[in-house]
Amino acid sequence: MDTEQQLQHRRKRKRGVVKHFHISSRSLFLCFSFFIFLLFLSNYHGFFTHKPPLSSSTLSLLYSSASLSILDDPLQSTAAKVSSTTLSLSLQHQILFPNHYLIILNNEKLQTHEVECVYYTLNGSSSGSAKPVLSMDYYDESRSVARCPFPETNDSTSGGFKVVDLRRFGEVGRRNLSVLRKQPPQSWDRVAYEAMLDGDTVVVFVKGLNLRPHKISDPTNFRCHFGLRSFHKDGVGASFLLSTKAVSVAQEIVRCVLPLSIRNKPEKARGVRVTVSNLSGNLRRQVRTLLPSVARVGSGRSVEKRSSEKYELCVCTMVWNQASALREWIMYHSWLGVERWFIYDNNSDDGIENVVNDLDSKGFNVSRKVWPWIKTQEAGFSHCALRAREDCKWVGFFDVDEFFYFPNEVRRHNEPGESSSTSSSTSTSVPGEKSLRSVVANFSSSTTIAEIRTACHSFGPSGLTSHPKQGVTIGYTCRLASPERHKSIVRPDLLDASLLNVVHHFQLKEGFESYNMPEHSVIVNHYKYQVWESFKAKFFRRVATYVVDWQQDQNKGSKDRAPGLGTEAIEPDNWRLRFCEVKDTGLKDYVLSHFADPATGSMPWEKH
Ligand SMILES: *[C@@H]1O[C@H](CO)[C@@H](O)[C@H](O)[C@H]1NC(C)=O
Ligand SMILES: *[C@@H]1O[C@H](CO)[C@@H](O)[C@H](O)[C@H]1NC(C)=O
Ligand SMILES: *[C@@H]1O[C@H](CO)[C@@H](O)[C@H](O)[C@H]1NC(C)=O
Ligand SMILES: *[C@@H]1O[C@H](CO)[C@@H](O)[C@H](O)[C@H]1NC(C)=O
Ligand SMILES: *[C@@H]1O[C@H](CO)[C@@H](O)[C@H](O)[C@H]1NC(C)=O
Ligand SMILES: *[C@@H]1O[C@H](CO)[C@@H](O)[C@H](O)[C@H]1NC(C)=O
Ligand SMILES: *[C@@H]1O[C@H](CO)[C@@H](O)[C@H](O)[C@H]1NC(C)=O
Q: Which residue's alpha carbon is nearest to atom 12 within ligand 5?
C-alpha cells in the first residue's frame, strides 16, 4: 500500500465533505468547519489523512517497544512539567557510545563549564553523583549536544543500571526517575542519527544497517517514517504516521521521497522526526522494523545562504584534535584559491573552536560543524557534500596534513624572466596564487568531468626529531619515491544520489567521470609520517578510525598502517630516517619565498 496515494485519496474525500457543508449549512457553520479543516490540514494532517491499516507488519512497527520508546519525547515533556521545581534543561535523547554518553538537548546557550552530568542508581536511593561534561556544543538551529563520561563506579550493589542526567551547576533537585528509567540511552550500534532535506527528498543517516560495504544497495525494502512534531504533546498519536519509499540506499545513508504534505512546504519539514525501516522475513510473514531514531530533519543549507555567485572552490575535512595543523593548511590553501572551509569536528578537545573563529574573523570563511558521530567519516563527507552544494561549484576532500603543490609554479618563480608568461586564465600577479582554483575552474563547464584526482607523495620524518616550528611544508623535505593514492575534488551537484563514497572518492552521476591531473603539473604533498610525537597521535586516530581493536593485530596489511609499525605505539628504531627515498624541497622553497616575513623570516601561521 502506498501511503502517498492513500493520503491523496483521503484528501479528495475530505474536500468532498467540505463541499457538502457548503451546500447544507449556514455560513457561520461553514466558516467554522472550514477553519477546523485548515487547522487539520496544517497541523494534524497525518492524523486525519492517513491511517494505515494495521496489518501485522505495521502493528509490529507501531508497537514494538524499541520504537515506542523513541516516539514521544517523555524526557522533554516531563522537563517542561516539572521545571519549576527541578531541572531546567530540556533533554531530547541519549545515546550510549563506547566510552561516553551523548545527550541531545533543546538549544541552550551554555558553555561547557556551566553544565554537569548527574548519575543516579535507579532504585532511587542515591541523590546522584556528578561529573563535569566532557563537552557542550551547539549542534544545529534547535539543538545542542553534551557528552558525559561514564560514572566512576559501576558496582551492581548500588542498584545496577545507572542513568545520566544533565543539570546546570548549582541546580538542585532531579527529574522523575521513573521517567528516566523508561528512557534508557539508545545504543550507538543501531540508530538513525541525522537527517537532511535535499530537494524533494530527505537524506537519513543511519548506524547499523549492515549493508554491503562500498556498494549501492537495493532500496526496495526500505522506507522512511516521519513523526509530526505537534503530536508528542499528548503522547497518544506520537508515532511515525507518514511513510515514504526509499529511492537510494548505500553505506549509512537512506534517501527517501518527502511526503506530499511537506514536499510543497519544505520549511514544515524542519525539525520533523524521521527514521527508517527495513522489511525482512519471508514471503508469508514479513516484518517491518523501525530503527530507533534521534534524527530530526535539518535544512540542507549552510547557515549563511549565498545570494551571489557560488564559490568556485570549497573544502570539506574531518578532524579530531588537529587544531594546531589548521592555520598553515588553511592559510596556504586559501592563497591557492580555496574560498570556503567546512571543518567537521569529531569531538576535539584541543581548542579548535578558537582557531576556527580566529581564522574566520580574518576572512578565511571557516566554519566548524560539530559531528559527534564517531566512525562515520564517509557519512560525514556525504553530509558535507550536501551542505556545500548550495554554495560551491567544487569541493575538495583532503586531510589537514595534505598540501597541494604546483611544481611548475616553482620553476616559473625561480626564473623571474618567465613569470609574466603565466598561462593561467586568471589575472594574478604572483605566479601560483589561486592556481588550484584555476585548475578546477578550467573544468567547471565540462560536460563529462565531475571529479579531479591528484596523486600524493608521502613524506617521512625527514630526519627531524621535533615538530617543525615554521610548519610542515618547511620542515619535511624527504619522501617516498612513488606516489600513493589520489585526492579528489568533486562537483557536488554531480554526485550519485546515494552519496556513496569510499576513501574520499564519490560515486559520480551516470555519464560523468574523473580526470587524473598529470603528476608533473600538480601533486599533493602528504606529510604522512611526521616526527614520532605527531605521528603517534595520528596513529591512534587512524587506528581508532579504521580498526575495531587496534591491539588485536587486525588490518595489518592496511595502507593506513605504517609499514613495519605493528600494533605497538612505541617509537621504532630510526623512525626519523624512515620513508625517505627522495629529497624534495620544492614546496619548502616555494612557500619560503612567498610567505616568509622578509624581516624576521617567520611564517604567517606561526603563533606569535
Ligand atoms: C556496568 O556493568 C554492567 C554489568 O556488569 C555492564 O553491562 C555495563 O556495560 C557497565 N556500564 C558501564 C558504563 O561500564
Ligand atoms: C537499592 O538497591 C540496593 C541493592 O540492590 C538495596 O540495598 C537498597 O536497599 C535499594 N534501595 C531502595 C530504596 O530500594
Ligand atoms: C513520576 O512519574 C510517574 C509517571 O510516569 C508518576 O506516576 C509519579 O507520580 C511521578 N513521581 C513524581 C515524584 O512526580
Ligand atoms: C533487511 O532485511 C533483509 C531481509 O529482507 C535482511 O537480510 C537485512 O539484513 C535487513 N537489513 C537491515 C539493515 O536490517
Ligand atoms: C570569503 O567569502 C567572501 C564572500 O562571501 C569572499 O569575497 C572572500 O574572498 C572569501 N575569502 C577567501 C579567503 O577566499
Ligand atoms: C584545462 O584542461 C585541459 C584538459 O581538459 C588541459 O589540457 C589544459 O591545459 C587546462 N588548462 C589550464 C589553464 O589548466
Ligand atoms: C572520532 O573521534 C573518536 C574519539 O572521540 C574516534 O574514536 C573516532 O574514530 C573518530 N572518528 C573519525 C571518523 O575520525
A: 339
